[in-house]
Structures are given as structure tokens and as C-alpha cells.
Amino acid sequence: AGESVPTIEEVISELEKSEVVYGIDKDEIARAIGDRKWDVTIKAAQGVLPQKGKDASFEYCFETSAQHHPEQDADGRIDYRNLGFIQNVKEGDTLAKKIPATDGSPGIGVNGKEFAAVKGRDFPFKVGSNTKLSDDGLSLIATASGAIVYKGGTVSVSDVVNIDKDIDFNTGNIETTGSVRIRGEIKTGFTIKAGGNVEVGGNVEDAKIIAEGN
Fold first, then answer.
1. pLDDT at residue number 83
2. How far is residue 151's CA from residue 40's CA, in Å, rounded to a whole number?
3. Which tens digit of pLDDT belongs to each residue from 134-161?
């Protein structure tokens, strides 16, 4: 009885004397006063944590998965000879785009002082053969026509594709804007189409070969 109950303003004034000036929770203070929580710790103020920026990332303009799937037409028929084994590009095509790292957002302590944000990490392009960076450094461009080679995060363009296996249902038909060297055989019913030369180390069965070169 007779105890003095502080006002919200008095509590805030005491907080300010202790350099607590930001993120003061008036509702929590009011509840503590109303419940007579004199010896209980409450969260009277809360700052804002700094937010780390997003790391740089890449968007590829081709299929990076090693899986090759058969084509399906509008009638639902599946062609197991067309698996897209080779992905072709022309000189000047964009191979990949870079999304730059962001700066993040600063934090603020209960004393009103700002904490610096942590910028996201930057990652450079892995520039492979027959590719170059755009002037702004945010795109990877093909400097030659050919097949995309993607390995270990590096994107290259090869004007000669080497296939160390038979051309069958595991590879599907082969079409490339450059040349192609096939170590194995070309099985019956499959087609090879090349903008350059075609070299075959094994036998050619009842297959079709179309070459703009030799």
C-alpha cells in the first residue's frame, strides 16, 4: 500500500538516461507496470539486426542437368531418338547471366547507433574457351558457334564435339552446328547432322549422316 507506481513516461526517461532510445516497446512497459512486475526482466526495447546481402548467383541459358529426356509431341507420342544430347549456340548468344551480390541492410542498436550491413559475396564467372564477358561483366557470351560444354561451373563452347560411345538410344540423334567425332558406331535409325565435318570410328548401320563439311 502506498507504493509509488511509475508512469510509462518515467520509465522511458530512465531508459534514455541509460542511452536506450531506439525500439522502445511501450506496450510491454505498460503491461509490466499494470502487472506490478518490479523484479521481473522484460524486453523494454529491441534493436534491429543487420541483414547480410545475398551472394552473387548465376542463371544459365541452357540445361545444366546431365539428364537427357525424349521429346513428346502434341499427340503424346514419345520420340526416343531425340534426346537433346548436344545443346548448340551461335556466336553472340548469351550463355549465362550473373545476378550481382546485394548490399544487405544495416542494423540499429537500442542506443540508436547503426551497425554496418554485410555485403553478399561476389563470385566471378568461370570463363571457358570460346566465351567472353559482356562489357558490364554480367553476361557470358559465346564467341564461336558450337556445342555447349558445362563442367565444374565453367561454360565453354566447342566447335568439335567428341563422343566416345555409340550413337544409340542412350544418346539419341546428334545435331551440332560444328563438327563431330564419334568413336563408336552409329546404330540403325539414328541421324547425325553437323554444320562441319563428321568423323566416325566405328561402323555405320542403316543411319543418316548430314554434314556441311566432310
1. 72
2. 60
3. 999 999 999 998 889 898 889 999 888 8
